[in-house]
Design brief:
Number of strands: 20
Shape: globular
Number of helices: 7
Strand content: 15-25%
Oligomer: single chain
Order of helices and strands: HHEEEEEEEEHEEEEEEEEEHHHEHEE
Distance between the termini: 109 Å
Strand order of the largest sheet: 5-6-7-8-3-2-1-9-4-20
Largest sheet: 10 strands, mixed
Structural class: alpha+beta
CATH topology of one domain: L,D-transpeptidase catalytic domain-like
Amino acid sequence: MATQPTAGIARKHSAAVLAARVVLVSSVALAALAWPCDRADAARLHLYRGKTALAGEKHRQEPTPAPKGPLQIIISIADQKISVYSGDVLVARSAVSTGVPDHPTPMGVFTVIQKQRWHRSNLYSAAPMPYMQRITWSGVALHAGVLPGYPASHGCIRLTEDFAIHLWQISKLGNRVIIAREDVRPIEISHPQLFGQKRKPDAPVSLGVPGEALGIAQTSRVPAADDFIKPVKVAGMVADATEPSAPAMAEQPPGTEGGPNVEPKPPTPKAEPISIFISRKQEKLFVRQGYAPLFESAVRIRNPERPLGTHVFTAVERRENSGAMRWTVVSFPDEASNRIERVRIEPRQSRHPEREAKRSKLAAPPRPSVERASAALERIEIPPEAADRIAELLLPKSSLIISDQPLSDETDSDTDFIVLVR
């Protein structure tokens, strides 16, 4: 006969079961209540990390290989777009936010002159400018920021965070940056006026300065009166700068410790691409190599009262069969083309809309950029000594800028040629 538990034991057993049920129900209720809070906290944490995490914490990925051709970064103010080309091949495109009317983004030809992964503005309350790539010493740069869908910056070019990281990985100091009102792109061009190769492929490149026929390069430009434009030189500002390594000592054969020291031959410096700038207003040609002025020369421009436009030619590569250089050109739309496009897109309010529509139809279409660039080349006469000198120094990634404008005051000893297009 089975024994029955006493009443006290039964009461204790029931209480224990009840307590366990209460704990279980409470745990389920707390978990249900905490679930939306956990999601919100996780979202806030992700947002916080997106704003403050270091690149190594948030983006642990392999660096993107740099394109082989000359990299050109082109920004369209009207389209609020950035396009990156390797030679004449589009490799990336994204949205941007440029300057507001009170602080417009300057249009013209620039280069990347400084890179800093984590930078704060020294003009606007230390505002963060991650993945900053400077194009002027007066404060214009590309960097990650907020993109509301319209111009909203103080002159900089804001990029999405992902695109800023991608561009940071593939770009280098000296890459060309072109900012235009309309969308432009590099197009292949071939013209006999583009500099040919005068030297043999194996002949050494001379870096001396031509004599009497060419003007001696200016050792420094006169800075602008405004201190805001002077270059900033602070130790440690350039993120990619490295300390020059000490030259390695030659190893001595065994048993010759007391003998004379044999100095190793210094390595041959690698030749850098050159930059050429021709100004219709100044009627001069300027040549730089690695930001260092080499020489300048007077040029003759036929019909100097007529504009040339602004054109950026880039030497892409040498053709294997002929050894000739392959060139591309980016041409800024001329003022006449801009006026025609504005009439077509936004016709003015008039009492005679039929007359305005007829006028826009009769207006001549803008000439292709290659045609306008070729016409500009044909009007420029360069002294033979200067042309031969340039041909000797010409390498892939060299560039030629032709413009009606003079050199900008932003051009300094720490920049390539900077040309503002007004």
